[in-house]
Write a structure and sequence with these properties.
CATH architecture of the largest domain in chain A: 3-Layer(aba) Sandwich
Oligomer: homodimer
CATH class of the largest domain in chain A: Alpha Beta
Largest sheet of chain A: 7 strands, parallel
Largest interface: A-B, 77 and 77 residues
Mean pLDDT of chain A: 81
Strand content of chain A: 5-15%
Distance between the termini of chain A: 26 Å
Number of domains of chain A: 3
CATH superfamily of the largest domain in chain A: P-loop containing nucleotide triphosphate hydrolases
Shape of chain A: globular
Strand order of the largest sheet of chain A: 3-2-4-1-5-6-7
C-alpha cells in the first residue's frame, strides 16, 4: 500500500512544520492519485502568498542573485520559499561535477525553505507538480514564494507566468539580451534585472533594455506599472535591496488595479489545462500496452496517421467514462 | 474561407517543389483543421528519410556547426533539410539585433531546404508542428532531415528524441558539459560532438565525455553501437566529414538491429500523445468563455481545486462527443 498523505499532514503543513512541508511536496511531485484529497485541502488554504517567478538564460547570474535575494528578503522579517526548476540552479541537488554555491548562510532558518523540483519526468507533469508545491508553501504561510526557472523552453515560460510578479534576469556579454528577446522572455517581465553590474560592459545591456521599454515593448498588461530595469551586483551586493523594494511596489500596483484578479484568473486557467494534460498523459500510460500499441502498429503500417490515431485514443479514453 | 491545402499541393510536395513544401509547412504550422486531410496524405508518403536531431545548450557552437554540416552532407549528393526550432539559431528568422550567420553558401541549391519554426505559440503545439514539417520534408524526398533544437526544456528534448539519430553538441569552457549533464541531455546522445576544437581547452571536454562513456553512461539503448565523441572545428573545418560518416554508420547500426523499429515505435507513440494534447488544448480554447470560465470562478472562490476542475472540463468535452 502506498503512503497516503493524511489531512493531519495538511494541518502540520499549515502550522509551518518544515518536515511536513517537504513530505507533502514529495507526495505532490509523485503525482499519485492518493494525494489528491490532501492537495485539494491544501488548495483551499492558499491565496495569501505573493508568488514571484524569476527567469533568465543560463549564465545570466540568476542563481547567485537568487541566493542574495532570498537572504535579503528574509532580513525584512518575511518568510520566503524558493522552488527551483532550473537544472543548472545551485538549489538543485545532484550536481555531478560540483559548482553548487554554498547556501550555509541560509541554512538553519525556519523562515526559509528551498526546494528543487525533479526535472527528469519524461512526459511532463513538472508544471503541475511545481504549482502544487507552490500551493503547499502558500498554505504553510510563506509570505513570498520565488519560482526559479531557466528561461528557455515553453514549459519554463508557462511555469514562470504562473506568478503574480515575473522577473527576467539578463547579464552583460554572452549575447544574452539578444537570445532573451528571441526566446520571447523579455516581454513577460514585470521587473528587469541586469546582473553582474560590476562588469564594465553591463551599461550597454541596461541601455538596451531601457531602450526597449521606451519603444513601448512593455507587455506586462498593466498600464498602472512602469517596468523598471534594476542593475544588480551579487559580488558587490548592489541593487538587491532595490529589487526587493520593486517586488513590493509591483504587488501594490497589482492590488490597486484589476490586474491582480486578471492574473489570478489566468493562473487558474493554466493550472486547469496543465492538470487536464497530465490526466491525459496518465490515461495514455494506462493504455500503453493496449489501444496505444494497436494504434502505433497502424501508424507504422501507414494505415492511420498521428491525428486520426490521437482522436481514436481520446475516443477510447472517453468511452470508459 | 480559409486556405485549404489541396491534395494537388501534396503531389507538388512529393515532386520536390520548394514553394509547395514551404506552403505546406506553413499550413501545418497553423494547426488548422482543414489541413488534416492533406497532412494525412503526406504522412502516408513518409518513412524514407533519415531524421537526425541535433541539440546543445546556447553557446555550444551548434549553429555554426549546422551550417558546415549541411553543406558537407550536400557535397555527398544527398538532399538535406533543416528544421530549426532553436530561437537563437541563425536559421531562425526575425533576429532583432542581428547575428544571423550568412547562409549564402547554401542559398540557391534545390537540394537544401532550411526552415525555422515559430516558437511563439503560447500553449505549445510546437512539437506537433515540427514533426508535421519533418513529414512534409520526408514526403518531398529529402534524404536527411536535421532537427535543430536548443537543449534546454522538456519540449526540446521531446522533439529531438523524435529522431532516428541524436547528436549532442558540447563546447569547451562555459561549464556547458556540466549544464548538459544536469539537463539530462548528454545521455540521449547517439553521437557526441565537441565543437570549437581549435580552442586549447577543448581537450578537457573530450576527455570528460569519453570518461562518461567508459563509465557506462551510454543510454542510447543500442548494444550494437558505441557512442563516438567527435571533435569538430567549424573554423578549421575539421571533424565535419567524420561526423557525416558517423551519422551514416549509426543509421547502419540501427538497421542491422531491432533498434530502428524500436525507435520508430517510440516516435509514433510520442506523436500520438503530442497530437492528443494539442486536440485537448484546442477544445480548451473552444470552451474558454464557457465551461472554462465557470470553473475558473469556482477555483478562485476555492469551491473547487485544479484537479477536480480539470476532470470536470474533460467530462464536459467528452459529453459533446
Amino acid at each position: 500500500m502506498r503512503n497516503v498523505p493524511s489531512l493531519e499532514l495538511v494541518d502540520r503543513v499549515a502550522a509551518g512544520d518544515i518536515g511536513a512541508i517537504a513530505r507533502m511536496i514529495t507526495r505532490a511531485e509523485s503525482g499519485q492519485e492518493e494525494c489528491r484529497p490532501a492537495l485539494a485541502e491544501i488548495y483551499r488554504r492558499t491565496g495569501r502568498a505573493h508568488i514571484v517567478g524569476i527567469t533568465g538564460v543560463p549564465g545570466s547570474g540568476k542563481s547567485t542573485l537568487m541566493g542574495k535575494l532570498t537572504a535579503t528578503i528574509r532580513t525584512t522579517g518575511r518568510k520566503v520559499a524558493v522552488v527551483a526548476i532550473d537544472p543548472s540552479s545551485p538549489f538543485s541537488g545532484g550536481a555531478i561535477l560540483g559548482d553548487r554555491i554554498r547556501m550555509n548562510e541560509l541554512a538553519g532558518d525556519k523562515g526559509i525553505f528551498i526546494r528543487s523540483m525533479a526535472t527528469r519526468g519524461s512526459l511532463g507533469g513538472l508544471a503541475r507538480a511545481t504549482l502544487d508545491a507552490v500551493d503547499v508553501l502558500d498554505a504553510a504561510g510563506f509570505d513570498l514564494i520565488l519560482i526559479e526557472t531557466v528561461g528557455v523552453g515553453q514549459d519554463e515560460v508557462d511555469i514562470v507566468q504562473a506568478a503574480h510578479t515575473t522577473i527576467v534576469v539578463s547579464a552583460p556579454g554572452l549575447g544574452d539580451d539578444i537570445q532573451a528577446i528571441k526566446a520571447g522572455i523579455l516581454e513577460i517581465a514585470d521587473i528587469h534585472v541586469v546582473s553582474k553590474c560590476d562588469r564594465p560592459d553591463s551599461n550597454k545591456t541596461i541601455v538596451d533594455l531601457k531602450g526597449m521599454m521606451t519603444l513601448g515593448l512593455n507587455f506586462s498588461g498593466n498600464s498602472n506599472w512602469r517596468v523598471p530595469v534594476i542593475a544588480t551586483s551579487a559580488l558587490k551586493l548592489e541593487g538587491i535591496a532595490e529589487l526587493v523594494e520593486a517586488i513590493g511596489q509591483h504587488r501594490k500596483a497589482l492590488e490597486s488595479s484589476d490586474e491582480l484578479d486578471a492574473r489570478r484568473k489566468r493562473i487558474a486557467e493554466r493550472r486547469m489545462l496543465k492538470t487536464a494534460e497530465e490526466i491525459l498523459r496518465d490515461e495514455f500510460e494506462k493504455h500503453r500496452d493496449g489501444k496505444v500499441s494497436a494504434l502505433v502498429s497502424q501508424m507504422l503500417a501507414h494505415k492511420t496517421n498521428p491525428y486520426s490515431a490521437a482522436q481514436d485514443l481520446l475516443a477510447e479514453i472517453r468511452m470508459e467514462k
